[in-house]
Amino acid sequence: MASASQRTQKSPACRYLPGVALWLNFLQVLTSLPLIAAKGADYYAILGIPRNADQAAIKKAYRGKSLEYHPDKCADDKEQCQTKFIEVSSAYEVLSDAEKRKVYDQHGEEGLKEGHQSDEQAKAMFRQFFGREPDGNVRIVRRGGQMMFMEEGEPGPKEDIYGNTNVTELTSDLYGSQINDRIEPWFVQFYKPNNDESREVRSEYIKFADTFKDFLNIGAVNCRQQRDVCSKASINEYPAFRWFGEDKGTPPEIFSEGTPSAKNLGKWASAMMPDYTTVLQDKHELRKWLDNVKGPHILLFTDKMSSPPMWKGLSREFNGRASLATVPRCDRTGVFKTPLQREYDVRIPQVVRIDPLDEIGKVTEKFSLTLKKESLNLWFMKAIALGKKAGPQATFKELSRDRIEAGDCGPTDSQFCFLWLKAGADPAVEEATRQLAQKYRRDPIKMMWANVELNPSLLDAFDLHESDASDFFVALRSKRSRFKVHTGELRFEELDGFVDGVLNGGPLPGKLKVPKIEL
C-alpha cells in the first residue's frame, strides 16, 4: 500500500503548478474576444457605433459624421476638420468592407497594411472633402498628430496651351457664367497640358476654331488648372469634347465621331448647331414660307445637303428679326437644276432678298459680296432697318387648297375676300395690289391672289371664261356665294374705289356657279 507521500507524487509532466491554470484560463478568454491592438484607431468609436453594428448602421453613422466634418459645415479649425474627416472616411472604408472588417476585428489597425488606402481610395476621400479633382496622386500623412491630405502633383507642364488663339480658355468663373448659365451653344474641349493626346490635337482644334470662330463659341478647359470644373463635369479621359446646347437645362453631348481632326470636329459641330432656317424644295413650300413668316425674307441657294454652319449661326442670331430659308442641293454647273433653282437667275451659292408679293416671290436684292458672316450681318441689319422704316408690310396671300380647307374664303367664311386672279406678272398691277393691301391691312377682310392658268376652274366659278382680260379683281362673300367683278383698270385708285364701295354696302350681283371654290 502506497504511503501518503507516494499517493500525492506525480510525474513532472502532470505536476500541478499553482497559478498556471488560472493564467491559461485568462488567455483562453482573452483570445476568444475580438482583438483591438493597443496601437491604432478605434474605428467603432470614431463612427460612434457598437461593435455588432450592421452595414445600414455603419453607413448611417458615416453619412452623419462626414457631413459634420465637411469643410462647408465644420465651424472648427479647418485642419482639425480635415483630420476628423480622414479618420471617419478611413473607418468607413474598413468597416464597410467585410474582409477588411474581419481583419480589423481580429488584429486591429496594425493588422491592416500600413497606408491601406489605395491611390483611388485616397483620391475619392480627397474629392469628397475638397469637391475637386486632385493634382496627381494623393497620400494621407500624419503631421503634428494630425492626418492630412498631400497632393503629390503630376509631372509635366500645367500652363494653358490655347493662349492667343481663337479658342477661349475657360477659368472656373468663366465656365460658370458662359457654360453653366449659357444662353447660346458652346463647343468645349477638356484637356491636360501634360497629356500627349491633348497636345497632339492642339493644332487640329485651333484649325477648327479658326473656321467656326464667327458663328460658334469655342472654348477649352485646362484640367490641371481648373480641376474643380473638370471634376464636376465628370471628365476622366483627355482630351474630351463636349457640346453644350443653348438650353442650359440639357446635359452636354459627347463627341464620339472618331479621331478629333478639324474636319471631324467641324462635321460634328455643324450637325449639332441649331437651325432656325426653313428648308425649301419646291414652289409650294416657298409660297407657304413667304405667306407665314415675318421680317425680311432672305434665301440662300447652296450646293450643300443642308444649311451650312454659317447660315445656321446667322439664323440663330437673327431669329425673330429676319426670316431665313435654304434651297439645298443646287447644281453649281446649272445642268441639273433643282425646281426652285430653275425659277431664279442666280449663281451658286447665292443669297437673295425676296418680296413675297409674286407667286414665287420677287427678287428685290442680291447679295453681291463674298459670303462672309461679317458682310452678311451688315446686309441683314440694313434689310431689317429698311423694313422698320417702311412700317408693317401687308401683301396679298396665295389662295391655296390648304387655306380654303382652313376656312379662308370657304363656304363658312363670313368676311369679304378680295381676289386677284392673275395670269401674268404686270409690275403696275403688283404695285397697285401692294398699296391696296397696305391700306386695308387692319380691316377684317382677306386679300388673296390665285394663278388662273394653274386654276382655270376659277374663271368658270365667276363666269369669266369668255372675257378677253388676263387679270381680274373680284369681291367675294363666300358664305353667301355672292360676288362682284371689278370692271375698271387694275390701278390703285380704281381698285381702292372698288373695295371701298363694296365695304360700304355696295351690291354683289353675281352668284357663284359652283357650290364652293376648289383648287
UniProtKB/TrEMBL annotation:
<dbReference type="GO" id="GO:0005789">
    <property type="term" value="C:endoplasmic reticulum membrane"/>
</dbReference>
<dbReference type="InterPro" id="IPR052842">
    <property type="entry name" value="ER_Co-chaperone"/>
</dbReference>
<feature type="domain" description="J">
    <location>
        <begin position="42"/>
        <end position="108"/>
    </location>
</feature>
<dbReference type="InterPro" id="IPR001623">
    <property type="entry name" value="DnaJ_domain"/>
</dbReference>
<dbReference type="InterPro" id="IPR036869">
    <property type="entry name" value="J_dom_sf"/>
</dbReference>
<protein>
    <recommendedName>
        <fullName>DnaJ homolog subfamily C member 16</fullName>
    </recommendedName>
</protein>
<dbReference type="InterPro" id="IPR018253">
    <property type="entry name" value="DnaJ_domain_CS"/>
</dbReference>
<dbReference type="Pfam" id="PF00085">
    <property type="entry name" value="Thioredoxin"/>
</dbReference>
<dbReference type="Pfam" id="PF00226">
    <property type="entry name" value="DnaJ"/>
</dbReference>
<comment type="function">
    <text>Plays an important role in regulating the size of autophagosomes during the formation process.</text>
</comment>
<dbReference type="GO" id="GO:0006914">
    <property type="term" value="P:autophagy"/>
</dbReference>
<keyword id="KW-0072">Autophagy</keyword>
<dbReference type="InterPro" id="IPR036249">
    <property type="entry name" value="Thioredoxin-like_sf"/>
</dbReference>
<dbReference type="InterPro" id="IPR013766">
    <property type="entry name" value="Thioredoxin_domain"/>
</dbReference>
